[in-house]
Amino acid sequence: MIASLSPAERATLTDTLPAWSLQPGRDALVRTFVFADFVQAFGFMTQVALLAEKMDHHPEWSNVYNRVEITLTTHDCNGLSARDLTLASAIDRLVP
Question: What pTM did the predictor assign?
Fold first, then answer.
Protein backbone atom coordinates (compact mmCIF):
# COMPACT_ATOMS: atom_id res chain seq x y z
CA MET A 1 0.00 0.00 0.00
CA ILE A 2 1.15 3.53 -0.72
CA ALA A 3 1.78 5.68 2.36
CA SER A 4 0.26 9.10 2.91
CA LEU A 5 2.56 12.06 3.43
CA SER A 6 3.86 12.46 6.95
CA PRO A 7 3.29 15.70 8.88
CA ALA A 8 6.97 16.59 8.30
CA GLU A 9 6.60 16.10 4.53
CA ARG A 10 3.44 18.20 4.51
CA ALA A 11 5.22 21.00 6.36
CA THR A 12 7.65 21.41 3.45
CA LEU A 13 5.02 21.61 0.68
CA THR A 14 5.02 25.40 0.38
CA ASP A 15 8.83 25.45 0.15
CA THR A 16 9.23 22.56 -2.28
CA LEU A 17 6.17 23.25 -4.47
CA PRO A 18 5.41 26.97 -4.08
CA ALA A 19 3.19 27.20 -7.18
CA TRP A 20 0.88 24.43 -5.95
CA SER A 21 -1.74 24.77 -3.25
CA LEU A 22 -3.80 22.42 -1.15
CA GLN A 23 -7.27 21.96 -2.57
CA PRO A 24 -9.87 23.15 -0.05
CA GLY A 25 -11.85 20.31 1.51
CA ARG A 26 -9.65 17.62 0.02
CA ASP A 27 -6.22 16.10 0.56
CA ALA A 28 -4.92 17.08 -2.88
CA LEU A 29 -2.60 19.53 -4.60
CA VAL A 30 -3.89 21.84 -7.32
CA ARG A 31 -2.30 24.20 -9.79
CA THR A 32 -3.63 26.18 -12.75
CA PHE A 33 -1.44 26.77 -15.79
CA VAL A 34 -2.23 29.48 -18.36
CA PHE A 35 -0.79 29.43 -21.88
CA ALA A 36 -0.95 31.71 -24.89
CA ASP A 37 -3.53 29.58 -26.68
CA PHE A 38 -5.19 26.18 -26.95
CA VAL A 39 -2.36 24.61 -28.95
CA GLN A 40 0.20 25.42 -26.25
CA ALA A 41 -2.13 24.19 -23.51
CA PHE A 42 -2.77 20.94 -25.39
CA GLY A 43 0.95 20.45 -26.05
CA PHE A 44 1.61 20.84 -22.32
CA MET A 45 -1.10 18.30 -21.53
CA THR A 46 0.53 15.86 -23.94
CA GLN A 47 3.87 16.25 -22.16
CA VAL A 48 2.20 15.73 -18.78
CA ALA A 49 0.35 12.67 -20.09
CA LEU A 50 3.64 11.07 -21.16
CA LEU A 51 5.22 11.79 -17.75
CA ALA A 52 2.19 10.48 -15.89
CA GLU A 53 2.03 7.30 -17.94
CA LYS A 54 5.73 6.62 -17.36
CA MET A 55 5.19 7.11 -13.61
CA ASP A 56 1.90 5.16 -13.64
CA HIS A 57 0.37 8.04 -11.69
CA HIS A 58 -2.34 9.95 -13.51
CA PRO A 59 -3.62 13.43 -12.65
CA GLU A 60 -7.14 14.72 -12.51
CA TRP A 61 -7.29 17.66 -14.89
CA SER A 62 -9.39 19.95 -16.99
CA ASN A 63 -8.71 22.17 -19.96
CA VAL A 64 -10.60 25.22 -21.13
CA TYR A 65 -8.98 26.91 -24.13
CA ASN A 66 -5.60 28.16 -22.81
CA ARG A 67 -6.02 27.07 -19.18
CA VAL A 68 -5.13 23.69 -17.67
CA GLU A 69 -6.00 22.86 -14.07
CA ILE A 70 -4.24 19.85 -12.55
CA THR A 71 -5.20 18.11 -9.32
CA LEU A 72 -2.89 15.52 -7.79
CA THR A 73 -3.92 13.01 -5.17
CA THR A 74 -3.25 9.31 -4.63
CA HIS A 75 -6.42 7.26 -4.57
CA ASP A 76 -4.61 4.23 -3.09
CA CYS A 77 -4.03 6.16 0.17
CA ASN A 78 -7.01 8.54 -0.04
CA GLY A 79 -4.79 11.62 -0.08
CA LEU A 80 -1.36 12.97 -0.81
CA SER A 81 1.65 10.71 -1.20
CA ALA A 82 5.25 11.07 -2.34
CA ARG A 83 4.04 10.11 -5.83
CA ASP A 84 2.09 13.38 -6.01
CA LEU A 85 5.13 15.42 -5.01
CA THR A 86 7.30 13.68 -7.59
CA LEU A 87 4.78 14.24 -10.37
CA ALA A 88 4.20 17.88 -9.35
CA SER A 89 7.95 18.54 -9.47
CA ALA A 90 8.23 16.91 -12.88
CA ILE A 91 5.31 18.97 -14.19
CA ASP A 92 6.90 22.15 -12.85
CA ARG A 93 10.04 21.42 -14.86
CA LEU A 94 7.96 21.47 -18.07
CA VAL A 95 7.07 25.16 -17.73
CA PRO A 96 9.40 28.16 -17.61
Answer: 0.93
